[in-house]
Amino acid sequence: MESLRDREILVVGGTSGIGRAVVGELLAAGAKVMVWSRRPAPDLDAPDVRWQAADVTRPLDEAGLDLPDQLHGLVYCPGSITLTPANRLTEEQIQADFNLNVLGAFRVIRFCLPRLQKAEGAGIVLISTVAVRTGLAFHVSVSTAKAALEGMGLALAAELAPRRIRVNVVAPSITDTPLAAGILRNEEKKKELGQRHPLRRIGAPADIAAAITFLLSDASGWITGQVLPVDGGYSTIK
Prior knowledge:
This protein is an alpha/beta fold and 238 residues long. It has one domain (2-229): 3-Layer(aba) Sandwich (Rossmann fold). It has 5 helices and 7 strands; from the N terminus they run βαβββαβαβααβ. It has helices at 17-28, 91-118, 140-160, 187-194, 205-216; strands spanning 8-12, 32-37, 49-53, 73-76, 122-127, 165-172, 227-230. A 7-stranded parallel sheet has the order 3-2-1-4-5-6-7, with helices on both faces. The radius of gyration is 17 Å and the shape is globular. The two termini are 34 Å apart. The model has no long low-confidence stretch (mean pLDDT 93).
């Protein structure tokens, strides 16, 4: 998308899965991309990509992280899939999911806010899950955390709109990523889960990345405070 050319965009968790696909989409659109993650990716090597080590589960140390003066976009990709029956779920598991999915996003947004505001027109995209609005067994921990993330996203959209910062949330269904490897054990399982979706397949990282790229572009300039299902129709069509 031409509107993203030369724009500075931070992708947190951009070395794997959906985040890695987002980086690819943004580079193809001509953006300048910074990636934060705990570990680097050997295949993430491009002149317009800058990687920095960052652990979002802890307070961010400003002295150790370097961002451009203006930031036109922020994508928060870290997530978790804790599938545990409620009677075996521990408080520590729920706290860990909340810390990564919600507090981590809050830490990053707060850190980046002055730079986003200087851009005089920026976008933030968070990643939720179809399980927030479609009750799924064994999803208590992740659904709780992502529901909180959606609430935070909508509240921030209202608060930041006067500053010309748009905030939206993408809610995917099961997507073929390393994070979901424990569920998508083989091609037979992928096919089985795909048949549960009206479009008869599971998601690909590129499906989600395309939606995120759109929400960062000027083409979505009048869209904010939305939760966009990208789920093959799973949440709305039976």
